[in-house]
Design goal:
Layout lengths: L10 E6 L6 H10 L9 H8 L8 H5 L3 H5 L4 H17 L4 E6 L1 H5 L6 H19 L2 E9 L4 H12 L7 E5 L11 H9 L3 E6 L5 H9 L5 E4 L7 H9 L3 E4 L1 H6 L11 H6 L4 E3 L4 H4 L3 H10 L5 H14 L4 H17 L1
Parallel strand pairs: 1-2, 2-3, 3-4, 4-5, 5-6, 6-7, 7-8
Helix pairs in contact: 5-7, 7-8
């Protein structure tokens, strides 16, 4: 039995567009452009692209991105994977998705212009929305791993399409490149009118979450699993309705948590925190959003009522206006009534 309510919008708020590349697309583009693929068939390629056993840490998980972005030889391929991301969301039954991406990370393997990558992604997602009927918004990422100077260039590239993005994020190596290096970047992001969501409390501790809220202006936090170590932070998240974008399978695969049963999602919900279920990098994790909801109940201990609360939290925290959320609710209800 599905734990997802069919008469209410299904939302994914934390999915990396550049971690959601189809295995078939990697093979197709790799063969077409004679790239040095580690295998020349889907099953041979799979262990190089997807996680088959938990990785020792998050940096080992990051290594799986090599072929997710390694095929981005030109802007047409960037446009294609953006388009396919929206189609895949539609196939999963998702009604609204926020796709985040790092233009420098995508541009780097083949020396593309980050601003050209941003334009291609915007075009691909717009075409996907038109063709597949899924509402999608884009979140730009500053990839902290390149440092603050490159981070400014990445921000400048994102700002070339400022009206086509809804938020700014910080992702990458949280331990060696802390949020303190990017305070001015996020001041610029807020001044551009963007919402702020920050990867924090995944590889770093609860202090990283505090910094993301207080200094970077985050109203949502990606992962935040270490927040449970700090009772004052847990209270603050609940009282101030700071959303938490949780990613169960990703956290198990990166060894951020040892298993589903020990994941803090249930604890956060019991504390009144607006926690959500998302997919993170489904092209690497080999999962989809319905699977994440099922595993949350079957292995992470959520009740059916808590799963329903999570689904409602997703829409509540979406970077949409109240009117846009109402449209999604009405459309979903009408569709459910017809079936």
């Amino acid at each position: 039995m599905s734990v997802i309510r069919p008469d209410f919008p299904l939302v994914d708020l934390h999915r990396h567009l550049d971690g959601s590349v189809r295995l078939e697309t990697i093979l197709d583009v790799g063969l077409q452009h004679n790239l040095p693929l580690p295998a020349r068939d889907l099953e041979g390629l799979r262990p190089f692209v997807q996680v088959t056993t938990p990785e020792p840490d998050i940096l080992a998980f990051f290594a799986k991105f090599e072929w997710q972005v390694g095929i981005l030889v030109n802007y047409d391929v960037c446009r294609r994977i953006a388009y396919e991301n929206v189609q895949d969301a539609q196939r999963e039954g998702i009604d609204y998705i926020e796709l985040r991406f790092s233009p420098v990370f995508m541009a780097d393997p083949h020396g593309l212009d980050p601003a050209g990558v941003v334009e291609a992604v915007v075009d691909g997602v717009a075409a996907g929305q038109r063709d597949f009927g899924v509402r999608a918004n884009l979140i730009g990422i500053i990839s902290r791993t390149y440092g603050a100077e490159v981070g400014q260039k990445e921000l400048d590239a994102l700002l070339t399409q400022r009206d086509h993005l809804v938020a700014l994020d910080l992702a990458g190596d949280e331990v060696n490149f802390p949020g303190e290096l990017f305070v001015d970047h996020f001041r610029q992001g807020r001044e551009a009118g963007w919402e702020i969501t920050i990867h924090a409390g995944e590889a770093g501790g609860s202090t990283a979450v505090w910094q993301a809220i207080r200094e970077l202006g985050a109203t949502r936090i990606g992962h935040a699993v270490r927040a449970v170590d700090d009772p004052a932070l847990m209270d603050y998240l609940a009282e101030n309705r700071i959303g938490v974008e949780m990613n169960l399978t990703s956290n198990v695969q990166t060894s951020t948590v040892p298993n589903y049963a020990s994941h803090p999602l249930k604890t956060m919900l019991e504390h009144g925190i607006l926690a959500t279920i998302n997919t993170d990098d489904p092209g690497i994790s080999a999962i989809d959003l319905p699977f994440e909801y099922q595993v949350a109940v079957a292995q992470a201990g959520l009740s059916q009522q808590q799963a329903w609360q999570v689904q409602q939290n997703g829409l509540a925290l979406a970077f949409l206006t109240a009117a846009e959320k109402e449209v999604l609710r009405v459309q979903k209800q009408a569709t459910a009534n017809q079936t």
